[in-house]
Amino acid sequence: MNQLFSPLKIKGVTLRNRIVMAPMCMYSSDNYGFVKPFHKTHYETRAMGGVSLVILEATAVESRGRISANDLGIWSDAHVDGLKEIVDGIHRHGALAGIQLAHAGRKCGVLSEDIIAPSPINFDDEDLSLRIPREMTERDIVDVIYAFEEATRRAKEAGFDVIELHGAHGYLINEFLSPLTNLREDKFSYNEAFGTRFIKDILSSVRQAWPEELPIFFRVSAEDYAEGGNTSYTISDALLTLKDSGIDLINVSSGGVVPARIHTFDGYQTKFAEIIKARTQYPVMAGGRIKTAQMAEEIIRNERAELVFLGRQLLIDPYFALHAAEDLKQEIDYTPVQYSRWKTSR
Ligand SMILES: Cc1cc2nc3c(=O)[nH]c(=O)nc-3n(C[C@H](O)[C@H](O)[C@H](O)COP(=O)(O)O)c2cc1C
Fold this sequence. Notes:
- About 30% of the residues lie in helices and about 15% in strands.
- The protein is α/β, with parallel strands linked by helices.
- It has a single domain (about 5-345), classed as Alpha-Beta Barrel (TIM Barrel), CATH 3.20.20.
- Helix 2 crosses helix 3 and helix 6 (about 230-240) runs parallel beside helix 7 (about 270-280).
- The model has no long low-confidence stretch (mean pLDDT about 95).
- Flavin mononucleotide (FMN) binds next to strand 4 and helix 9.
């Protein structure tokens, strides 16, 4: 069997193959974070197309944690019903449903909102449209931790199987984890355990609200692509301090902490995942410009990662997993029954 199509059990859930839909903001909500018909069709279609896990886009745990005014939200109980409809649509097709819980921190682009960060440093000095964030007080930190816990409780109510905490791309959690953005001198400082105190406290609250048998993923930026910033090695050191905090898998991405030119190529982030896996022994998910079944299969077969994520390829090919099965000549049994005739046309 191709390893890409082998199931993977993580805690109490089993993914039917190793192909995961990466979280991708669709900027299609209203100004209040509610689910729209577009979201339901969009996510259900990818589940129908055979991925094992659909991870919903960065979903804001506080209204000031939005990247844009059109982000999805999970900061109020009123958001649960819409999210549950998406979850039900994903489950109808045998995929698992995940949600990325996020706070934009200094990258909040909603002008009416308070903009907060570990330290009062702008994302880009040259962009005059960006506001300088307010340095978070300990009270702010407690509030945001509570917001993550409440969001987790709502994710459970909506029926999600996986939560992913967004610690990448220069958003709030990542801002604590990078020496370029965390200049604090208190217990949340970068010098105290690589800035992991904030995420550690989030994890300990979130674990109270999330069933023990369900997994928690953590997405990190393995490289800041800037002098003095994080690399796969420093991020590995940070992750080692979180070993007993309840993370089940690391989703390895990169960039976004400071403006930087990133040279991308097919598979450009796989090496980072491999380094983190080797140094920390966490299971990892690799991705970044994976477009072919062969590349995905190679990563899994060579045990470079436990899972692969696909983002943009799934935007143009929701049926990537079915195409991959065809390319790799793999029999699969989860084609939607209505579509099973595709096999007889070959
Ligand atoms: C339209 C779009 C929206 C994205 N939104 C998110 C997001 O909400 N959260 C996140 O962690 N990454 C986000 N990303 C990054 C993707 O998850 C993924 O890591 C990136 O696109 C690289 O994978 P790919 O080459 O397969 O697309 C987004 C990417 C795209 C293209």
